[in-house]
Amino acid sequence: MPELPEVETVRRSLEALIVGKTMASVEVRLARIIRTPPDAAAFAALLTGCRVEAVRRRGKYLLFEVPPWTLVSHLRMEGQYRLASALEPESPHTHVVFHFTDGTELRYRDVRQFGTMDLVRDLAEAPEGLRTLGPEPFDPLLTAAAFYGRIHGRQAPIKAVLLDQTCLAGLGNIYVDEALFAARIHPQRPADRVTKREASVLLHEIREVLTRAIEAGGSSVRTYVNGYGRHGGFQVELSVYGREGQPCRVCGTEILKLRVAGRGTHVCPTCQGRPKQRRRRRKTARQGA
Ligand SMILES: [Zn+2]
């Protein structure tokens, strides 16, 4: 599933490609992609004649500003946008086509068909997932103390808490595994056992891994491509994700794949320790005190 770096890369490519273009017509071939309004024909009619003013991102959502509307798009598993000329042959699984007045068209392709589009006037009408999003990882108001406050008091594994979009927006399976590895925190550690100091390191590593991934154009682990149809390059820099059975780049220990929060989770058992051992150590320390 595209995560923050991939959606941001798509956003940047689309911003360069479609801002300023006016929609001549919109073709919806698979009605279930469109959630709001419930009638796909109305969706197409409302967008016709609208000009793309901006392409923004919030968490893993793309927000196309087409006044008076905001088109909220979530790529889910494999949604892809591609700008093409009307003459270019179309890929299979193209479900929505935005035809522009200059003869180009933005094609939405989605093999798995899990992606969604909502056309709304304001945030109050937006899908719940967007309205309840936590802060952006790069939000300057998200200080180390604020981040600690968001994860502290939750007993779920830290991985589950980081995947929760209401806690922090934009992270998914790949970058949670990478950030926890970089911060040397085991994904199964209960969030309330992450110390203030570790939370500060973790926030720093989240920002670090997201920044590097955006610079590399995202990770093409599955089918992800940007608006130019180009793959990302960050997959070769991944430290643990998808590297089970291979040696840790730091200590040489074999990377393990576990199941945490219902997701395949990659961990270096040496670098990231085991949560049980830490708990035991703390107990001993307390008893001794
Ligand atoms: Zn290691």
Characterization of the model:
The chain is 29% helix and 21% strand. It is α+β, with helices and mostly antiparallel strands. The protein has two domains: 4-131, MutM-like, N-terminal (N-terminal domain of MutM-like DNA repair proteins), CATH 3.20.190.10; 144-288, Helicase, Ruva Protein, domain 3, CATH 1.10.8. The longest helix is centred in the last third of the chain and has 20 residues, at 196-215. The chain starts with a helix and ends with a helix. Residues 248, 250-251, 253, 268, 270-271 line the site of zinc ion.
Describe the secondary structure blueprint for this structure:
Blueprint: H1 4-18, E1 23-28, E2 34-36, H2 40-47, E3 54-58, E4 61-66, E5 69-74, E6 80-85, E7 94-100, E8 104-109, E9 116-120, H3 128-131, H4 144-151, H5 158-163, H6 173-182, H7 196-215, E10 256-260, E11 263-267, H8 275-288
Parallel strand pairs: 2-9
Antiparallel strand pairs: 1-7, 3-4, 4-5, 5-9, 6-8, 7-8, 10-11
